[in-house]
Each structure stands twice: as C-alpha cells, then as structure tokens.
Amino acid sequence: MLMTNPAERDSSAIPAGNGGWGLIAGNGRFPFLVLEAARSQGIDMAVLAIREEASAELERHAKRIHWVSLGELSRAIELLHQEGVTHAVMAGQVKHKQIFSAIRPDWRLAKLIFSLPFKNTDSLIGAVAGVLKSEGIELVDSTAFLKPLVPDAGVLTRRRPDAREAADMAYGRAIARQIAALDLGQTVVVRDGACVAIEAMEGTDETIRRAARIVTDAARGSDSGEASAHAPGGAGGSEIVVVKVSKPRQDMRFDVPVIGLETVEVMRGCGATALAIDAGRTLLFDRAQLIAAADAAGIAIEAFGVVAGGEAAADAAATGQQPNEAK
C-alpha cells in the first residue's frame, strides 16, 4: 500500500480559479516548468525571484516579477500581498550554503531563525511556510502542476537493472532511507554491496563524482589491469549504482527530490550504470529526453513505491542487520 499522508494529498491539489497565484523561484529549470504548466491551465503567476539564485531569464517568461534577496522575508510578504497572492509554489533550489552563509536576515527572519530549535534547511523553510500561512498565503505542493513528470513505480528505461544492480539498489535504498531520516542527505552511491559515498551539502551530482573518484583511486591502488577495467570511462566503467530517496516525511511544498538531464550525463561520465528513485516523490525534468539519454547510455532507471510499514525487515535483510538494528 502506497503511503498516502492526508497533508500531502491536500497540498498537491490545485485550488480552483486562476487568480491569486504566486511563484517563489530559486535556481534551475524548475521555475520555468511551473510557469509554463500553470500558463497552459490559464493561470498567470506573479513571480518572486530570489536574487542570489534565480535566472535573469525569468524576466522574459513572467509578466509580473519582483526580485528579493535571501533574508528579505518582510519584503517578500509585502510583495505577495501586493500581487494578491493567496496560493504559492516554491520551485527551484536554494543552495544550503547560500542559506547559512550568504543570508542577511531582516528583523522578521532573524526572529524566526532565533526561535528554531534546529538550524537546518527544512526547519527554516518550514517555519517560513508557517509564517506565509499566517499571512493568508498557502504553499502548495511544488509538483502540483507537473504530475506527468512524477513517475509511478516501475522500470522507466528499456533496460531493467541486472541482478548486481538490483542488489545494490536494495542495499542503497535501505541505507539512504536511514540517512534521509537524519536529514543528512538523500543520495547514496553503492558498488558491490558497499556504500561508496553519502550525500552531504554538495548535492546529487557532486556526490556521484566523488564516488567515482573514490572508486578510481581504489582501482589505482590495485594492479593496472583492474584499474583500467574500473576507472570511469574505461572498459568497465566504475560500475556504481546511484540511489536517491525521499525523506520519511518529505514536504513536497518546498523540498522535492529532482533528477535532470545533467545528472544522467554525470552518471554516464562517471560510469554509473543504474539509478533508483522514489515513485510519486521524484520530479524528472525533461522526462522523455532524460529517459532517452539514459537508454542511449545503457543506464537502467527504476522507480520504487514508497510503502507504508513493512520495510524494516527488507531494510534489515539488505543491510545484514537484525530488524531492531535497522531503525
């Protein structure tokens, strides 16, 4: 049975009517996709673009756009009220390092940060969402306009994962879920039942590159024949498997796992052969082109359903732990 959190169901629904919509835009293509999808439904969004992150190209795609810096919470709320926004979508990444190094909070955000028991990204953005709600602005599931880009469970590519990849996927998903539950990262890279790299603040693509470097360095420490077989781009590639999961209580309003064409290209360049993602909770940018690129590279992609309960035993089997140790 797929997990159906009532709060997630409510936040994914698109309210009726075409007025009162706003987009809070970070970096990447996500904001452009939301704007295009909303426009196709007759919805004209006012855009609040984050100066440190959003693309200047948004000026050409939005009729109503305002630029705000990170930390300008009071001004952001004023602008949203000015535009009559009652429902907003957050789309596009804001880098962790930007939030905790470049931010210059105004009095309202400073007070909010001071009140947080945990100073992580989810806590901060979740608290901002709470402030917006108190101001009559409801944050909606970021994928609400992009459901065709969120895959159902199943193999998405022509090639299915082979036995080795399937085993690494199962092991990686068990590890990744535990890491994600600690809010440390959502991506792990596995090879032959060993966790090579765990995502920190650098993001998915850099985690894959780091894993490939580790595998290459390990290969160089062995005989030259083995090194040439396992180096990225070599005859055998690095043969690593990438696993990206959602958090146990993923808030799809502002924290959506995303895979794009660039990630597939990074995987190809690093010799990664397979990718596991969560069905229903992962956004695939340029889905058709992404899958075509994976097929061309011989990469297998499989989306796994997120199951409510019953996973402890599977996790324990994958990690070699007893069920009470897998928590």
Looking at this protein, list some descriptive labels.
327 residues, alpha/beta, Rossmann fold, Cytidine Deaminase, domain 2, 6-stranded mixed sheet, 5-stranded parallel sheet, 40% helix, disordered N terminus, disordered C terminus
Distance between the termini: 20 Å
Could you name the CATH class of the largest domain? Alpha Beta
- Structural class comes to alpha/beta
CATH architecture of the largest domain: 3-Layer(aba) Sandwich
Question: What characterizes the major β-sheet?
Answer: 6 strands, mixed
Order of helices and strands: HEHEEHEHHHEEHEEHHEEHEEHEH
Number of domains: 2
List how many beta strands DSSP finds. 13
Instruction: Determine the mean pLDDT.
Output: 84
Strand order of the largest sheet: 6-13-11-9-7-8
CATH superfamily of the largest domain: LpxI C-terminal catalytic domain
Strand content: 15-25%
Query: Could you list the spans in which at least 5 consecutive residues all have pLDDT below 50?
Result: 1-12, 223-237, 309-319, 321-327
Radius of gyration of CA atoms, rounded to a whole number: 21 Å
- What is the fold named in CATH at topology level of the largest domain? Cytidine Deaminase, domain 2
Basic shape = globular
Helix content: 25-40%
- Count up the helices: 12
